[in-house]
Amino acid sequence: MGQTTLMSIWAGENYVSEMDVEVKVVSPGVGEIVCPECRGLPERYPSLFPPELGITQCVNCKGTGRVFVAI
């Protein structure tokens, strides 16, 4: 595996807009992309919210910066 391809998703800040992302094929039917929520920068993500909310990591990728998708 390990090949890459482009894929369209509807995610991130605006669920109405389409985004093209590069997908790394992990296994048949499974791909890995940069997290659309934190854009691959999980260390910066908590600073986007007031501290009193207690958000310490990205909800989608759990602080890894990458998520798996079905392809």
Give a short summary of the structure.
This protein is mainly beta.
The overall pLDDT, averaged over residues, is 88
Q: Tell me the structural class.
A: mainly beta
Determine the fraction of residues in helical runs and give it as a percent range.
under 10%
**Total count of helical runs of at least 4 residues:** 0
- Biggest sheet strand line-up: 1-2-3-4
User: What is the molecular shape?
Assistant: elongated
Number of distinct beta strands: 4
Topology pattern, helix = H, strand = E: EEEE
Radius of gyration: 13 Å
Biggest sheet layout: 4 strands, antiparallel
Number of domains: 1
Distance, first to last CA: 13 Å
pLDDT < 50 runs, ≥5 residues: none
What fraction strand?
35-45%
Question: Can you put this structure into words, describing what you see?
Answer:
By secondary structure, this protein is an all-beta fold. It has one domain. Strands 1-2-3-4 form a four-stranded antiparallel sheet, with no helix packed on it. It starts with a strand and ends with a strand.
Task: Indicate the topology.
Layout: E1 4-9, E2 19-27, E3 30-34, E4 66-70
Antiparallel strand pairs: 1-2, 2-3, 3-4
